[in-house]
């Protein structure tokens, strides 16, 4: 039987679009069901009523931290797939609309489409969500919403991709109880002899809490990961929920925890007395990995170049580092 | 002459509240001026038309990543003060209001006060901002907004702190051109012989970009900081703007870059060929720093305890780490 996918509603949200994509890509994934909040999604997965889809990271806004905190704290829930969705707004209207006077969307949607709104000289009306703008649309209104809303709410597309900034992208995780996730990952491992060693490439997100505190504990942790030859693509620290001043570390690796070197590194961290939890394992995504060249650097700052003689008495270095 | 503080408007936003607090705490800080977006704030500071106030980190949502990216990329702008504001909503009404039927706020404000709204049985009306709800309030409406809005918009307080969750807090940075910031920090250093060594304690936020890539480069960076005995309280990686797959690292330290050990560590990083920029230096905040105890740990996960014999064949470890 196909597995229900629980996502953050209302219908027609970007998370809904991610859930539909997950339903298309993942064997055994079925109907998508809107939930009122993220807690309800974790609860549904915890009660084994299906899988969940949550927003994880956006290339402009960074991590969706409340969802990250919830996954760290969830019992028996793990990510097993990662889905990317381009953040793009379509301008939608009723099929027999009259003269258009007003444009409606969540304030975030309105803020992301200022050029389109100014060009059309429309009055602006904020709504509780982009989907609510579609649901409650009147004959003289334009709604800004994800493209999936045209079908859902029976609307016509006035214009596609009307956002000011193209290139916005949000990544979502598909969550399951741990035994379900293991079965899904096992099936992928069984299919895919893409690598020389017979393993398909995976990525993992792992949370660490260092129970032995003091200077250098983080560097010690990273030493273990370095000696294992693991490629880390993202790393953040987060206060432990409800305990200001205590931290967890969340890292994304180009490896699966069952690969011998990774497994040995995790064993070493455990033997050191620290807390470890795998938050997600999913097939590796294609990612660019260009070298960093000087022309890519932000404005200001300091780095070694042909003209550097000594930083110590250099006014520019002093200005950028405030080190005097 | 007092220095103008540029903040993200409209008047009565939480950033406005932070700007008023900064104006009260910092010598030479004067009038607060609302700007339409964060770019306008950086531009005003860059043109030396005053200082800026930007949201930096929230204890629930994490870093305000677009502001972090903007500060990394800004030329000659640095933070020199950090201001914390409790995220609290007051229910505001017109002085001679009629029967109250409707409650207005930005969708985020509405979502954070669901208990109050349900208790009073009010119809919900989203607005573009909490301040807009106050500005456009009618006789039968309640506006949810920061407490500073009562004065600004001439409204009465129906109820204080009506948010569902108490304990939300956002930290703001006060930004200045680098020479201005140095003067301000110099004045604080001159006043404060609070420490045995005559230095007042400071914190710093520093951005690093590793120009030599390859496995272990991050661990190498952290080694240098560890050997300098620096206490790091926050650490994240961020893609370099416009260059997917390239990363900067942003770390917060309990030290000032002019302190000899920190300065030596930064010199070593520079000598290694990497890029460094100080994003902020400000007086140290009081922070709890409790040891991490087992009862503070999230649900699930694995750590060493009295019952651990071997992780290798332990089904629970296997379940939490997905390492088989």
Describe the structure.
Two copies of one chain form a homodimer. With 324 residues, chain A is α/β, with parallel strands linked by helices. The first copy, chain A, has three domains: 119 residues, Periplasmic binding protein-like II (D-Maltodextrin-Binding Protein, domain 2); 70 residues, 3-Layer(aba) Sandwich (D-Maltodextrin-Binding Protein, domain 2), CATH 3.40.190.10; 124 residues, ACT domain (Alpha-Beta Plaits, 2-Layer Sandwich), CATH 3.30.70. Chain A is built from eleven helices and 15 strands. In chain A, the strands form three sheets. In chain A, strands 1, 2, 3, 4, 5 and 11 form a six-stranded mixed sheet that branches. A five-stranded mixed sheet of chain A has the order 8-7-9-6-10. Chain A has a four-stranded antiparallel sheet with strand order 13-14-12-15, sandwiched between helices. In chain A, helix 9 runs antiparallel to helix 10. The interface between A and B is large, with 104 and 104 residues. Chains A, B: InterPro entries: ACT-like_dom_sf, ACT_dom, Chor_mutase/pphenate_deHydtase, Preph_deHydtase. Chains A, B: Its EC number is 4.2.1.51. Chains A, B: Keywords: Amino-acid biosynthesis, Aromatic amino acid biosynthesis, Lyase, Phenylalanine biosynthesis.
CATH fold-level topology of the largest domain in chain A: Alpha-Beta Plaits
How much β-strand is present in the residues of chain A? 25-35%
Estimated radius of gyration of chain A: 24 Å
Average pLDDT number of chain A: 88
Name the structural class of chain A: alpha/beta
The count of domains of chain A is: 3
